[in-house]
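Explain my protein.
***
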Amino acid sequence: MQVTIIIQKKTGVLDPEAQAIQQALYSLGFDDLQDVTVGKQITVEINTNDQERAKYRASKMCETLLANTVIESYKIETKEPS
């Protein structure tokens, strides 16, 4: 089963990379921006047909390695095999 993990900084955590991107876009004339966020997207294949197990395994991956849960949150999405 394909699992996509989306990791972003929690609200209130400073994100200098996003701030730099926003400033650069403003300077290029994109003055209608309201906010910019930067995150990570990780896609893994887990050898299971059980959606709940896939989400559980992905969550364990985030808690142990992929996300710094002090400053980042994550969302897990699954895709049924076609």
